[in-house]
Amino acid sequence: MVTRCTQFLLILCMLVSASACARGLPDLTDLIEKNSPAVVKINTVERAQAAGRGVPPQYRQDIPEIFRHLLEPRRREQRPVASMGSGFIISEDGYVVTNNHVVDGADQVIVTLPDRRELEAEVIGTDPSSDLALLKVDAEDLPAITWGGSDDLEVGEWVVAIGSPFGLDYSASAGIVSAIGRSIPNESQENYVPFIQTDVAINPGNSGGPLFNLKGEVVGINSQIYTRSGGSIGLSFAIPADLARDVVAQLKEKGRVDRGWLGVGIQNVDRNMAQAMGLKRPSGALVAQVQAGAPAAEAGILAGDIITHFDGEKIDVSGDLPHVVGRTRPGSEVTVELMRKGRVKRLDVVVGALAGDEEERQQASVNPAADAGGRLGLMVDEIPDALKQRLGVESGVMVKEVVPGKAGAKAGLRSGDIIAQLGFDEVGDLDDYQRIVKGLPGNELLPIRFFRGGQPTFRTIQIEEG
């Protein structure tokens, strides 16, 4: 009898404890019901055109005229390539935020509202560095989200994602913030986003969807997952809302994003370096290289300095520095605090503009030597030896800038890509590139092979000439 009473009491205690735990969990039903109408599904179509491989132009003259038409490359019909993602409405008049990688290279972007309306969207602007894009649909009186403050987020805080994973419309998932300020370089090795890490279930199709706090405010935009299977394993990364708001405002105002630039190569400080430089613990960003003529060089920053504060913000690890420099407006004068030979030093720096801003684009466009990127609309240069080793490439040229509307831009090339083949010729160096480009035929689809983030990619490129 005692045993049965004991078992009953144990079961009762377990039920009471479970009930208490359940009462402590957040009720997300109102949050999801209120905010789902502002979440949209995004479908994109890219018209990929394939072409058969013909005889290189330099060999055609050796073929009798009567047979040449048989050896011309055969064009195939365009094959639409579809992809999908998520997004959310930020204003009643139809502005929509999503990830850049959701719409990158798309010829058509369709936004599907929760009421099943399908609206073609205009791409107002994109920012590959932050993986954000701003769209506009022709509609009025749409439900819109409320922005929240991502700087106030704390590890352990509950967050909710709404999106279309695997095309399953308007799915919700919840979890907690598991870390903040994660530094994850993108395909171009840029590192301007201090990601929010969560254990919310994020899967393909969630990209570009909102991450809410329990107040129903958007505190992040879901962007990446870490996975070896292609599905969620409990590590997802969101772009902070405070950064996203600034990027979106610039895209809406001028269609581009201007970022601060210091002009240094940096690395982390290890224990031995900290001891040698008089630091109590490893912290800061060790300056490994200073670019000649860059804002850092003009201010007197030297290789071997350890930057510990930038404009009053503490730099704990090297990845913190690009975050704070990138969001500083070009032309601003800020104070940099650093350690040099065991002593604290403060320098005033006038922050420059990261390559790709409007001023530099204008300078490039009026430079006769640049010729607006030549026939392909690409500004290219030799690949630094250190970058060759890191990416595992031995030859080619690096894209420094892509001129909008020209062949390179239409082929989907980006700054940082390494061109290895043009047409049917391998690109060894800058001289090879210039020679090959000069001989490329116009108005004909040609293969181009390039590396992005160390991964080889084949596409087609066409020089449109009258």
Automatic annotation (TrEMBL):
Subcellular localization: Periplasm
Gene Ontology molecular function, alphabetical: serine-type endopeptidase activity
Residues at which substrate binds: 101, 131, 205-207
Residue stretches making up the PDZ domain: 246-319, 365-422
Highest taxon listed in the record's lineage: Bacteria
Catalytic residues (UniProt): 101 (charge relay system), 131 (charge relay system), 207 (charge relay system)
Presence of the UniProt keyword Transcription regulation in the record: no
PROSITE patterns xref list: PDZ, PROKAR_LIPOPROTEIN
Coiled-coil residue windows: none
Task performed by this protein: Might be efficient in the degradation of transiently denatured and unfolded proteins which accumulate in the periplasm following stress conditions.
Family membership noted in the UniProt record: Belongs to the peptidase S1C family.
Protein name (Swiss-Prot/TrEMBL): Probable periplasmic serine endoprotease DegP-like
Organism, as annotated: Microbulbifer yueqingensis
Upper taxonomic lineage: Bacteria, Pseudomonadati, Pseudomonadota, Gammaproteobacteria, Cellvibrionales
